[in-house]
Design brief:
- Residues 31-98 form the RNA polymerase sigma-70 region domain.
- With 196 residues, this protein is mainly α.
- Among the domains are: 14-98, Rna Polymerase Sigma Factor, Chain: A (Orthogonal Bundle); 145-195, Orthogonal Bundle (Arc Repressor Mutant, subunit A), CATH 1.10.10.
- It has helices at 13-21, 25-47, 50-67, 77-98, 112-116, 125-144, 147-157, 163-170, 174-194.
- The chain is globular.
- The protein starts with 12 loop residues before the first helix and ends with a helix.
């Protein structure tokens, strides 16, 4: 039997889980190809460190590989992956806070925007400069958000989760999600306005 090409779009979630549980190596490759970027955005939204986020996501996939047989499929695969990523990221952050090293700068901070923004090409240098300025200001503003607010904002804006999905994912009330997103947007608008 020929192995299917490891792409995100030729395997549905249930089939993927079934093949992962059977230990098929190409299924793990599909899993990584399909979810790596999404999980990286979540990890980065919490840690604000690109290199650490890459390591966290790698650890998430290792954890999934080791524990896939215990996955009961009560929730979807992506929900399970998201929860593991959030927990690993928060654990990393707590560890660094204990060591008084939380306010460090990532060595790749100049590339922050690449994690969240699509690079739309423009031949107009002025437009490119303005876009770059805006993205840098936005990333600075996101960095300044309190952790709980930033997590909810990242899950909503970059992961596309509804308020209800966020509430279930991180075990808070839907109203709390709403107020945190409102707080995040208000603060980001104020920060961006002050940078004009």
């Amino acid at each position: 039997m020929n192995k299917p090409k490891a792409t995100a779009d030729n395997t549905d979630e249930q089939d993927l889980v079934k093949r992962l549980k059977k230990g098929q190596p190409w299924a793990f490759e599909v899993l990584v190809n399909k979810y790596q970027d999404r999980l990286l955005k979540i990890a980065y939204g919490i840690t604000l460190d690109h290199e650490e986020s890459l390591e966290i996501v790698q650890d998430v996939f290792i954890s999934v590989f080791k524990n896939i047989k215990t996955f009961r499929q009560d929730a979807g695969l992506v929900t399970w992956l998201r929860k593991i990523t959030i927990n690993q990221s928060l654990n990393w952050k707590r560890k660094w806070k204990r060591r008084f090293r939380w306010h460090h700068d990532s060595i790749e901070s100049e590339n922050d925007k690449d994690l969240f923004m699509e690079n739309k090409k423009s031949n107009d240098p002025e437009t490119q400069f303005e876009k770059k300025q805006f993205e840098e200001n936005l990333m600075k503003a996101i960095r300044k958000l309190p952790e709980k607010i930033r997590l909810v904002f990242v899950l909503n804006v970059f992961e596309g989760l509804s308020y209800e999905q966020i509430a279930k994912t991180i075990n808070i009330k839907k109203g709390t999600v709403s107020s945190r997103i409102h707080f995040a947007r208000k603060n980001l608008i104020n920060s961006l306005e002050s940078n004009k």
